[in-house]
Amino acid sequence: MTTASPPPASPPSASALPASPPSASAPVHQRLAELTAATIVPLQQGYLADRSPAVAALARLRRGAGREAGELPDLWNLVDTGPLHTRTDGSRALSERELTGAENALHAALTLWAFHQQSRGTPMHCRHTRDRPRGLGAAVRRLMPADGVDEPVRKRLVRAGTAPDLTTLTQRLRDLVALLRRDDIPLDYALLAGQLYTWQWPDGPAAVRRSWGRSFHEQARAAAAADENTTKNSHTDKDAS
């Protein structure tokens, strides 16, 4: 893995990502997030529709989960990083280090999603919104009981957050994704891809850990608000009767 001067520390907001291919003038982490979504969405639709090409593509991608980008030649024509090389008037070309970091993050996000989606009949990549948080912290919080914290699960998230490099981080995330897959809990992989890019730069891990922590508490607040609305509706129904 290579490092260089850091990009903007804040990961992208998935709710703001357009469905179109990434524009060359956007920040690298945003372009990467957009490319991740543009790659996953049609594959996910095809897989859920049981289309053979998509099913075969996911099988190939799953073999790359937890492994370094470029390690499997079988994935070279499946993980298309071409849009990251696009340059338009007024934009700068990405440096070799930026391209390497983006390629590493894209590979990690796509292969983790393919592992997550395996044998699931509902989308495991879902866009993050304020009302429905889909960041990693929020997804891990949903693994826990509403009235408490599952300490072993929390420690898995903390352990991922202290990974020394991207390969180790991806391997530890795979363990968390296995739990999310078991419980049919989706994740925003576009958001995660941007975070994995940020992770590879100085001060990046700290920024990503903060994002995961905010996401964890964001899910708790969303769950509390949902419970409050349910209680209010229940009282309203009783009053009406």
Automatic annotation (TrEMBL):
TM region(s), chain numbering: none
A UniProt-annotated Pfam family: CRISPR_Cse2
Region (Disordered): 1-27, 219-241
InterPro entries cross-referenced by the UniProt entry: CRISPR-assoc_prot_Cse2 (IPR013382), Cse2_sf (IPR038287)
Superkingdom field: Bacteria
Low complexity compositional bias, start-end: 12-27
Biased composition (Pro residues): 1-11
Designated name of the protein: Type I-E CRISPR-associated protein Cse2/CasB
Organism: Streptomyces spongiicola
Organism ancestry: Bacteria, Bacillati, Actinomycetota, Actinomycetes, Kitasatosporales
